[in-house]
């Protein structure tokens, strides 16, 4: 929760993530996704260059879909954005 609090103190606009009462926790969002039987694991790459809030909404949608908690993700960042790197780290997703 400390990393999440630091993220929220630094960046604005992430209402569910940064609310004081019952905030969304990335690890719990991933764990809450319905499990599906998988034959193989196919990673998903999300490409972005800016707009961390759009990435946030995309990650939430992907993680909450059936099988989302079982799917490996990678954020492909073009350029440099501390907010996107910090957001991906908060979600436990590698960012390159």
Structure description:
This protein has 96 residues and is mainly alpha-helical. It has one domain. The chain has five helices and two strands, in the order H-H-H-E-H-E-H. A two-stranded parallel sheet has the order 1-2. Helix 4 links the parallel strand 1 (44-48) and strand 2. The mean pLDDT is 93.
Features:
96 residues, mainly alpha, two-stranded parallel sheet, 5 helices, 2 strands, 44% helix
Topology:
Elements: H1 2-10, H2 15-18, H3 26-32, E1 44-48, H4 52-64, E2 73-77, H5 82-90
Parallel strand pairs: 1-2
What structural category characterises the helix and strand content?
A: mainly alpha
List the helices and strands in order. Answer: HHHEHEH
DSSP E strands, number: 2
Low-pLDDT regions: none
Strand content: 5-15%
Coarse morphology:
globular
What distance separates the N and C termini?
24 Å
Largest sheet: 2 strands, parallel
Helix content: 40-55%
Strand order of the largest sheet: 1-2
Count of folded domains:
1
Number of helices, where a helix is a run of at least 4 consecutive DSSP H or I residues: 5
Gyration radius (Cα, Å) is 13 Å
Provide the residue-averaged pLDDT: 93
